[in-house]
Amino acid sequence: MQYPGVGEAIAADLANTDLLGTLLRQGFGGLDPGELVAEIKQRLTEELDYRQEATNQSRFAEFFAGHPFIAVPAVVASHSTARVLTADLVTGASWRELLTWNQHERNLAGEAIFRFVFRSLYGFHAFNGDPHPGNYVFHGGGQVTFLDFGLVRYFSPPEMATFVAMVKAAAYDGDAAAFRRVVEDAGLLRAGAPVATEEVGRYFSHFYEAVRTDRPMTWTKEYASSIVRHTFDRSSPIAQYATVPRPFVFIQRINLGLYALLGDLGARGNYRRLAEEVWPFVDGPPSTPLGEAEAPWWDARKS
Predict the structure, then answer these.
(1) Which residue range forms the structural domain that includes residue 169?
(2) Residue 167 counted as domain residue
(3) Looking at the predicted structure, is the pLDDT value of residue 300 above 80?
(4) pTM for the complete prediction?
């Protein structure tokens, strides 16, 4: 149910986005905040309409139907309106409770969240832009139920092609020249900016560090914080020539939101191999027991 005052609170958020755009322009010389502000306003406005959220949730539930460890509650349409959203009841452990579980369980939960985010992005071409720990219910053994689909962004085939080309060039091929061409074509970096291509590669590669190398790694709060600092580092020459086109406004929450969650969990695993399972240009074999469980579902989903 939409609580009293929510509309007014979001209206205040909408007003503040213009101020945010002004502040970002002052800090980042190349940033054009127009598209960023427009995207934030559109997504926040959609959050007020629970009919849109019900549609989003139903689409995610359909996509993940039959998944062995990812669940999305079905919407009860007969009891839902523009201000009331009713869905199947889910019980389980909260994020705070999960943090008291042993490391193995936290590793499985982190892997499940990672797979949910990137199966959604690469398989469904959608991203649930509110990676808040209160939106997850945990059941042990990597079983996770995902809630709250009010802030969803759907991506077009050209937008997806750009995302795929970026990660392939940066994390898989290690091709700085190809990566620069992609980000310039996408409008992330001013074409012909007077910065070395190697510097462009180093600046953006930080976001892909966890999946660039085939090795076990542990997510830490320090690494997650370093991503935030790097994102808002005004001292980098790249910041003077970079901007954020609309498709990238909420996709960045993958870096700032998901990485923070994995850092809180201290999640361990070979995330390069997990990434290769979900990257469409690799579609790699299962690398974990959860991957083995997911593979038949994914094979059926692709067919």
Answers:
(1) 154-302
(2) yes
(3) yes
(4) 0.85
pLDDT (tens digit, 9 = 90+) per residue, 237-275? 888 888 878 878 777 777 788 999 999 999 999 999 999
pLDDT of residue 43: 55
Residue 249 lies in a domain: yes
Reported for 31-40, long-range contacts at CB under 8 A and 24+ positions apart, including other chains, are 31/242, 31/243, 31/244, 32/243, 35/243, 35/244, 35/245, 35/246, 35/249, 36/244, 36/246, 36/249, 38/246, 39/246, 39/249, 39/250, 40/249
Question: Going by C-beta distance under 8 Å and a sequence separation of 6 or more, which residues neighbour residue 17?
Answer: 37, 40, 41, 44
Whether 123 maps to a domain, the answer reads no
| The pair of three-digit structure tokens given for residue 100, joined into one six-digit string | 């008291």
Q: What percent of the chain clears pLDDT 90, i.e. is strictly above it?
A: 61
Over the Cα atoms of the chain, what is R_g? Answer: 19
Q: Give the total number of structural domains in the chain.
A: 1
Displacement of CA 44 from its chain's centroid (Å)? 17
